[in-house]
Amino acid sequence: MMVTRLYTHPACLTHDMGAGHPESPARLTSILAALKAPEFAELDWAEAPPATFEQIMRAHPPAFIEGVLAAVPAAGLVALDADTILSPGSGVAALCAAGALTTAVDAVARGEIANAFCAVRPPGHHAEASIAMGFCIFNNVAIGARYVQRKYGVRRVLIVDWDYHHGNGTQEAFYQDGSVFYFSTHHYGAYPGTGSAEETGAGKGAGKILNVPLPPGASDAQIVEAFQTKLVPAARNFKPDFILISAGFDGMQNDLLGVFNITPAGFAAITRIVVELSKELCRGRIVSVLEGGYRLDGLAESVLAHVQVLREE
Ligand SMILES: [Zn+2]
Known about the structure:
- By secondary structure, this protein is an alpha/beta fold.
- It has helices at about 25-35, 55, 60-70, 90-110, 140-150, 170-175, 220-240, 265-280, 295-310; strands spanning about 5-10, 45, 80, 85, 115-120, 155-160, 180-185, 210-215, 240-245, 285-290.
- Bound molecules: zinc ion.
């Protein structure tokens, strides 16, 4: 029986942007503790190796990668922008977060496992090619998409991003690409300000960006409807060979940074829609990666609901 594998790395707990920062190591601590529950005993835990420079280079120019790694302090904190901060552990954490994607892609592409969830931080979807921002250093999901295309000759990758915030970095990476379809539900008007429904891609990428803004207070029913009426037909039309999920949980009720009302049942429902699409279109091949989610007591519960559906496959 094929299993769901959980990728993480202890270094992801050492990236610490300072007391009171919402993107805290405690987020990951709570998720990992919850996933150790007896009912998840058959989850296959694996350590994520650091990504190689060459792998990261598919989504970021060498000068940017070198600059970020050189800026990592030996002690104290260094700010890359107002809310994206490097601590001594941040370099290895960022490398392992990206490496979780590439190694998970390997395992799924080779058919070793059914699918994977990468419980890593820093998150990635705000990171643009040469800009670390919004708590994100390297764009993990963009690196994963480029990696699966290059290493396995996969032509079409679908990225599904249900973080409360728009993944400006991921959109930027593939805006004129055409081989990667980017679907995002988010609160348009919240950080970072991008993600209107009118942003649909350009050139070869025309029509390959699908932004579905949801209103404040968006419910399970509203996000499920967006997935059923927008994502499902778009995915069937695009026919992906591989699916990546930017799994942000800051759309949950009472999140510290969001004003949506998504419950664990809602995250389970949209996961199920993506899993069904993957079975119909690409032999179930899914790699999911943690993005946001900041209310500690609700985050783990939402992640469990997501992983529970992944591992039912
Ligand atoms: Zn977010």
